[in-house]
Amino acid sequence: MSLQDFWDVFVLGVVLGSLYAVIAIGYTLVYGVLQLLNFAHSEVFMSGGFGGLIVLTVVVPAADPSGIQSAGYVLLGMLAGAALGGGVAYGLERVAYRPLRRRGAPRLVFLITAIGASFFIYNLAGKIFGRNASRMPSMYENKTLFTLFGAPINVTQALVVVSAVLMLILVDFVVNRTKLGSGIRAVAQDPEVASLMGVNIDKVVSRTFVLGGLMGGVAGFLYGTTTQVWYTMGFLPGITAFAAAVLGGIGNVRGAMLGGMVLGVVEAMTVEIWGDAWRYVGAFAVLVAVLMFRPTGILGERVARTA
Amino acid sequence: MSTQLTKDGAAQGSSAAPALLELRELHVFYGAIEALKGVELSVAEGEVVALLGANGAGKSTTLKTASGMLKPRSGEVLLRGERVDGIPSHELVRFGIGHVPEGRRVFARMSVVENLQMGAYRLRRPDPADMDRVFTLFPRLAERRKQLAGTLSGGEQQMLAIGRALMGKPELLLLDEPSMGLAPLIVQQIFDILREINEQGTTLLLVEQNASQALQLADRGYVLETGAVVMSDDASELLTHPRVRAAYLGEAAE
Fold first, then answer.
1. Would an 8 Å CB–CB cutoff place A201 in contact with chain B?
2. What is the predicted pLDDT for the residue at A261?
3. Nearest to B106 by CA among B117, B90, B96
4. pLDDT class for B65, splitting at 50, 70, 90?
5. B172 beta partners
6. B225 - beta bridge partners?
7. Which of A80, A228, A270, B86 has its CA 20 to 30 A from that of B120?
8. CA separation (Å) from A234 to A221, B3, B212?
9. Residue B112, min C-alpha distance to chain A (Å)
């Protein structure tokens, strides 16, 4: 691989990795507050793709849009993705998980419910929207914007990375600097004591799902823009992002970001070197290797949960 | 077994105003196991009340029921005469209850300051003076304000747990075994500060294994055995009572 190839592939990896990072946040936040592996998060992501697709199909005309219109369409697509993603995440918590929490169900039941909810949602989407993949209407002309180390960066790639980075900064701010964030962190560490401080656990859990859902939804829209939108589109990115969350140290927001980037770049490199058939092998080999030496993930907590 | 020795606790504070905290006929269950079998207890404003008893007697359960962490199957929890049982703990803090849980349970991955801020979570506008007050009571915490709580010593964590509860401006502070696992010197410090907190106007309900320390601080005390109150009296009376001395001060009394 020449140096130029390296940079080209690196750019692809960063684009993919920033999406994984955003999705991984959804897994890690929910895991933090509930110790739940919310496998249905991949369907939250998928819903975001359809949210953007539906709205833009209605709004975007066939003619080439002007620059300002393009920006408007992109923004609208993100909002639609966020709205549907956040809505599905909210509904998921209310309908599937909260009743289990009320009854103090064992953790295995949560896991099975998550898997069941995932199957239910993507099959429902397949039933409603059909089994074929749909292309996002063209919101802008996807030309090359600039080159970085000789690697051309097109509009979509710039859009994905910039919006992902903005979302990561935003969520980092919310978790570390706002009242909701302190509620989330307190519930993650000791829900019982958090409620003694006046934290309404139900509210915090619900908002955590929505926060993860908003971002997962936008990621779904962005992913749909880079490829297409279809009812099982959430599966592989979802699994990979989940692996990214584990790699970074599940429960740790910055770890999820790091894990996502690492897996994205490793995946792109693997495809370049060994071909597309090996796509997920490299990334998951890295995951296994890292976990062998650091079972808590790269930035995982070593402090005991409670005294 | 149940020799109600002298004064009933409720009778003591019984002028016109209702007691700050009153527990009536509390029955609390963990599944099929009855942990509290009709506990009756009252705490008047400004008092320090100690709750003594062996392991498993129901002391922590009593505190948890008072702060809304557990729901009684029957019986009443009254704050200033108002029934509050069934109100979840995150809402009950608004009634002025602070609970320092057993084992301290500070937020290990948050700094000292963040822990204190969590204590003020219920307040819309936290008062900066509250944190100054905590740092005045516990100068050790001021020195370690940026340190992660998980890296503090046991005594410092206990101070932090108490400080955190004070940040919510409680009228009634429930303390579950504040001396547990601490060196005697630190225990003495903690109890001195508890006295100071009480003198500043906070009512204390204290669960303790260290009966002699607790009774020296307390105005009154209750003794719990297997989920029921078997004695209640002035702390000074309990300190000299032969049965209390034998059962709870055996090792502490020199």
1. yes
2. 96
3. B117
4. very high
5. B97, B203
6. B228
7. B86
8. 11, 68, 63
9. 13
Which superfamily is assigned to B1-96+173-254 in CATH? Answer: P-loop containing nucleotide triphosphate hydrolases (3.40.50.300)
Which chain B residue has the Cα nearest residue A302?
Answer: B109
The token duo for A273 is 């070197």
Strands B172-176 and B97-100: parallel
Mutate to test the interface with A, among B65, B87, B90, B125 (most CBs of A within 10 A): B90
In a domain, A307, yes or no: no
Residue A215 is part of which domain span? Answer: 3-293
Which among B93, B106, B108 is the nearest to A196, CB-wise? B93
Closest-CA distance of chain B to residue A186, Å = 7
In this predicted structure, the answer to whether residue B5 has a pLDDT above a threshold of 70 is no
**Is A40 in a helix, a strand, or coil?**
coil
Chain B hits for A307, CB-CB cut-off 8 Å, are 103-106, 108, 157
Q: Predicted ipTM?
A: 0.88
Domain segments of chain B as ranges? 1-96+173-254, 104-169
pLDDT at B254 over 70: no
**Contact, A66 vs A250, CB < 8 A?**
no
Mean pLDDT of B59-63: 96
Q: What is the pLDDT of residues A187-227, one digit of tens each?
A: 999 999 999 999 999 999 999 999 999 999 999 999 999 99
pLDDT at B243: 86
Q: Distances in Å between the alpha carbon of B155 and those of A34, B106, B140, B210?
A: 30, 12, 10, 15
The answer to whether the CB atoms of B121 and A179 lie below 8 A apart is yes
Q: Taking all residues of chain B, what is their mean pLDDT, rounded to a whole number?
A: 90
Q: What is the pLDDT of residue B4?
A: 42
User: How far does Cα A76 stand from its chain's mean position?
Assistant: 19
Per-residue pLDDT at A306 exceeds 90 = no
Within-domain flag for A299: no
* CA–CA separation, A45 and A89 (whole Å): 9
Chain B residue with CA closest to A307: the answer is B105
Residues A114-135 have a mean pLDDT of 96
Q: Decide: B50 and B214 in contact? Cβ < 8 Å.
A: yes
Position A298 in a domain = no
Task: Report pLDDT for A202.
Answer: 96
